[in-house]
Amino acid sequence: MQSESPEQVRSVVAATDTRGKHRISAELKRLEQETRFVEEELELLDKMEKASAACKEMLSNVETRPDPLLPITHGPTNPYWDRWFEGPQDSSGCRCWIL
């Protein structure tokens, strides 16, 4: 069993250390880039108006405009449909268990 000379050990450590430094450098660059992206996003958020004001404005716009996909009706189209949604006129004569 031969022991390695100190020069061989140093060359192996130097090669390993170089790869470690490169990984650390690459990770550091990635973190710096991510930090820049987050800072830019924070600046954009600071420049935006408050969400509640935008929501109130959108809600008022939606409430004032009729839905283009729904027909505009004033009252029931067929008055006989109302009888299905109303209670019985004379509850004493009604023998249904639901009501």
From TrEMBL:
Residues 25-99 form the G protein gamma domain. This is G protein gamma domain-containing protein. Its main location: membrane. It is found in: Cell membrane. Residues 21-48 form a coiled coil. It comes from the Eukaryota. InterPro entries: G-protein_gamma-like_dom (IPR015898), GG1/2 (IPR045878). Pfam families: G-gamma (PF00631).
